[in-house]
């Protein structure tokens, strides 16, 4: 049975035979090669080999069509598309398959291939380039094949720019995300001193149903654990406090017998959950330490913090955590998991989840395109090599965007490499396919429309999600400015913070008490008030390094849809007007047309300029009040407060002479509304009757539930 088919579309490729020879020499698995000779026979010819299939076309059908034809011929689980001028590491195929997961696109480290030199009769050598006479003596030259995989550079991080053009992203190698590696899953362990009967029943059922083997002192373990159907391996045999782990599944047949608890079925997830670092030669596959050291493909859609019952601490790695795992474990084992930065694990009092990280893998925004592996199913499911594009160009962008936006990952495997020969000098050392600039630009425009325009129908993420994740230069980035006076009830505060983390955006929190575990925190030791609020906003805007900022308040529930909107103009303030009030006292719900600072977003530099000027005006008012020069024109406000009110709280929404600037505003409505929780300590006034408004809202809807969120009473209970 063939496990991997290597697909090589080739047109006028003089190194095709040498590339195939290199693959045959270095592959170690059940691997085949399918080469498509697109418009010409190979010269030099490819030698016959039962592991090589040749398809010939007298007329060129194009690189994409040729790749798809080879893919249709394959029956293997995995497909690897490679260029016809590459060299490979020994055992590259088995190293790649060992770490592959079904929703990943994987590529090895990319080196540069020194394929040949031009050599004259006098021995002068010229590095690979277009043909021609010796540049030193003028004599004719001949090609000398050297086939050297250069050890520098070693490329592992790629991106594309705003024109969808391929770029290296070497600066990403310095980021914490890159250095962290890739989380493959979690080890489940427990403290036998505090384990509940329910957990014992769960683990006992697991062991007795599936015949797990014992590691360590079987009789001691059984005697001390008081039941015989389960085997444990104690971490600490000295009598001190320690944890114990469920023992390991030895092979695929044992994995296949796991059919009872849903969480364990998810854990093993067929073949996609094991890492080669835990395998033994006799096990296929093996999990060395525990059955729950099986691995989960990550969804990265939402974060662990959704289920954390304390805001202290919030995991620093929250963007990597698969919340479905935690939710399922909560349902079976019970309790909520809290992250411990000291141990880098999650715990609920008796059960611990330890992330298992492979530091020899890294995520990449895009790929170069000369070598990548996917499953055969994903190749066709995602139309990974769409013939709606012109034949040449944008393959790396297409593959990467379709992988990421469909819920998969692009992974670079540092355990192996390939070397690619670059030929961009023109003449007879250029691209084998016709690639007129007009067609290249058409492909880039199509990529931008399809992916950046959020028109690819199989996407489960929008394009901005990908930009936020990798923060490439040149692209507009989004961030959250969260501000709080720390006088809000903890139940509401924790709920709001957990909900905000789902947006997967960088957060700067500005608080009047320290909040070191919520985003990048700035603590201002000030008293609550309008001046303080403005100073908080300025501090947050100065600390954020994103282009676009969403203003988020401590008592507002924001759906992730709130952050899908992207402002287009720097001279406009934008307001999400799909907003409901929720009365914390009784769950009463109210919608009315209005703009609020809690729904404001815009370009950071525009907002910063506005709030700095606002602060200057407010400080002028304070100075005027001290001098006795400020006079109230309304009977219901003290002079200073009235002066501040006349400045306005929502930028761009009024035309009074006191307005801060001349910029206007525009409205948008998110697909799901955000909820402004009204309690007994809001900074702004609570008004629940339409006659309490001087300017009557155009729409006024009172209800007992909020669209998409549910009944108000239920929401209050959940908080």
Structure description:
This protein has three domains: 4-179 and 362-466, Spore Coat Polysaccharide Biosynthesis Protein SpsA, Chain A (Alpha-Beta Complex); 182-358, no CATH class; 476-718, Spore Coat Polysaccharide Biosynthesis Protein SpsA, Chain A. Helix 15 packs antiparallel against helix 16. It is built from 18 helices and 33 strands. The longest helix is centred in the last third of the chain and has 23 residues, at 604-626. The chain is elongated, with a radius of gyration of 31 Å. A seven-stranded mixed β-sheet has the order 22-21-20-23-28-25-29. Strands 5, 6, 7, 8, 17 and 19 form a six-stranded mixed β-sheet that branches. It has a six-stranded antiparallel β-sheet with strand order 12-13-11-16-15-14. With 719 residues, it is α/β, with parallel strands linked by helices. The two termini are 55 Å apart.
């Amino acid at each position: 049975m063939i496990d991997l088919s290597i697909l090589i579309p080739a047109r006028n490729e003089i190194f095709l035979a040498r590339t195939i020879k290199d693959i045959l020499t270095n592959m170690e698995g059940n691997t085949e090669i399918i080469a498509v000779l697109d418009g010409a026979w190979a010269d030099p010819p490819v030698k016959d080999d039962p592991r090589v299939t040749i398809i010939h076309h007298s007329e060129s059908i194009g690189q994409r069509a040729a790749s798809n034809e080879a893919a249709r011929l394959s029956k293997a689980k995995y497909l690897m598309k490679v260029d016809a001028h590459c060299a490979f590491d020994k055992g590259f195929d088995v190293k790649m398959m060992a770490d592959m997961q079904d929703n990943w696109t994987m590529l090895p480290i990319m080196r540069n291939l020194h394929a040949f030199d031009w050599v004259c009769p006098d021995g002068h050598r010229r590095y690979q380039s277009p043909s021609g006479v010796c540049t030193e003596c003028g004599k004719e030259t001949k090609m000398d094949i050297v086939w050297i995989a250069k050890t520098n550079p070693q490329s592992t991080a790629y991106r594309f720019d705003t024109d969808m053009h391929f770029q290296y992203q070497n600066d990403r190698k310095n980021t914490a995300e890159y250095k962290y590696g890739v989380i493959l899953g979690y080890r489940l362990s427990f403290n036998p001193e505090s384990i509940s009967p329910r957990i014992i029943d769960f683990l006992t059922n697991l062991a007795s149903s599936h015949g797990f083997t014992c590691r360590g002192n079987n009789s001691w373990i059984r005697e001390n654990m008081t039941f015989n159907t389960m085997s444990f391996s104690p971490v600490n045999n000295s009598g001190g406090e320690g944890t114990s782990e469920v023992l390991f599944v030895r092979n695929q047949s044992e994995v296949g017998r796991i059919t009872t608890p849903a969480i364990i079925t998810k854990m093993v997830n067929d073949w996609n959950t094991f890492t080669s670092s835990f395998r033994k030669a006799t096990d296929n596959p093996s999990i060395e330490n525990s059955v729950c050291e099986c691995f989960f493909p990550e969804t990265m859609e939402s974060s662990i913090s959704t289920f954390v019952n304390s805001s202290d601490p919030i995991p620093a790695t929250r963007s990597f955590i698969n919340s479905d795992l935690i939710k399922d474990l909560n349902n079976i084992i019970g309790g909520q998991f809290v992250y411990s930065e000291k141990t880098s694990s999650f715990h609920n009092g008796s059960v611990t989840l330890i992330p298992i990280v492979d530091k020899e893998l890294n995520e990449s925004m895009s790929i170069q395109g000369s070598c990548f592996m996917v499953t055969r199913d994903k190749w066709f499911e995602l139309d990974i090599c769409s013939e709606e594009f012109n034949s040449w160009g944008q393959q790396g962008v297409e593959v990467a965007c379709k992988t990421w936006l469909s819920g998969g990952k692009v992974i670079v495997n540092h355990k192996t490499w390939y070397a690619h020969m670059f030929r961009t000098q023109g003449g007879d050392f250029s691209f084998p396919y016709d690639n007129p600039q007009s067609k290249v630009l058409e492909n880039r425009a199509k990529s931008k429309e399809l992916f950046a325009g959020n028109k690819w129908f199989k996407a489960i993420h929008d394009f901005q999600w990908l930009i936020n994740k990798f923060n490439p230069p040149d692209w507009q980035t989004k961030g959250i400015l969260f501000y709080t006076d720390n006088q809000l009830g903890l139940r509401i505060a924790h709920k709001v913070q957990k909900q905000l983390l789902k947006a997967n955006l960088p957060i700067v929190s500005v608080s009047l008490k320290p909040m070191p575990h919520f985003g990048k925190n700035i603590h201002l030791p000030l008293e609550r008030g309008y001046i303080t609020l403005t100073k908080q906003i300025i501090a947050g805007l100065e600390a954020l390094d994103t282009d676009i900022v969403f203003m988020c308040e401590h008592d507002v529930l924001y759906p992730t849809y709130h952050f899908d909107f992207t402002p287009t103009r720097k001279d406009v303030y934008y307001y999400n007007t799909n907003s409901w009030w929720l009365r914390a006292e009784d769950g009463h719900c109210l919608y009315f047309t209005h703009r609020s600072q809690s729904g404001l977003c815009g370009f950071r530099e525009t907002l910063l300029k506005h709030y700095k000027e606002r602060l200057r005006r407010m400080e002028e008012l304070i100075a005027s009040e001290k001098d006795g020069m400020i006079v109230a024109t309304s009977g219901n406000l003290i002079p200073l407060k009235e002066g501040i009110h006349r400045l306005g709280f929502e930028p761009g929404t009024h035309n009074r002479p006191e307005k801060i600037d001349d910029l206007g505003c525009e409205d948008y409505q998110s697909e799901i509304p955000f909820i402004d929780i009204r309690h007994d300590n809001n900074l702004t006034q609570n008004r629940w009757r339409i006659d309490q408004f001087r300017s009557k809202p155009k729409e006024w809807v009172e209800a007992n539930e909020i669209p998409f969120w549910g009944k108000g009473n239920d929401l209050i209970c959940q908080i």
